[in-house]
Structure prediction request, 195 residues.
Amino acid sequence: MKTIISIEDAAKSMNSDDFFYRFCPFCGNGLEMIEKGARKRLYCGDCNRIHYRNPTVGVAVIVLENNQLLLVRRLGSYEGKWCIPCGHVEWDEDIRDEARRECREETGLEVRIGPVFEVHSNFHDRSKQTVGVWFWAERTGGSLRAGSDASEARFFPLKEGLPELAFPTDVRVIEKLRRWSQGNRLGPWLAIRGK
Prediction:
């Protein structure tokens, strides 16, 4: 059963960033907010269509050489903070091709994308949620230089202090990298995956 409530009433109980359009992108008519199950959803009565708001998919590329981790200093959002090279998957783009492209664009390095190291839901920006996939990668070419979304790209010792990171999920991934490298789990994990 669905309960129809006004968008204005929904806005009072939700952060206004929680919904991003008021008109149906298919027919142009105004949308209503309905309750379906435990969630409030945008609904077009004319199209009889619920408009779901789903997270986008992001990729990050872990390049670890001589126990040093590749990071980039961001431009734009979170400017000046550092992160593992990353980006959003484009429509019609393979997730591994996207990872390779982002690494090249942000760092100048060509990489071979390996296995998935970690997957996390990113809630650090509640209005722009993503699901992040961190791939293991190995450098195959190129030269290290800052690219389109970065002011700097460089390797940092994994075991020592790192610069201020933009994303809490990168912190979690780096903590796992540290644990696994100290516990000698990284080598066997890569060996099993043929890397």
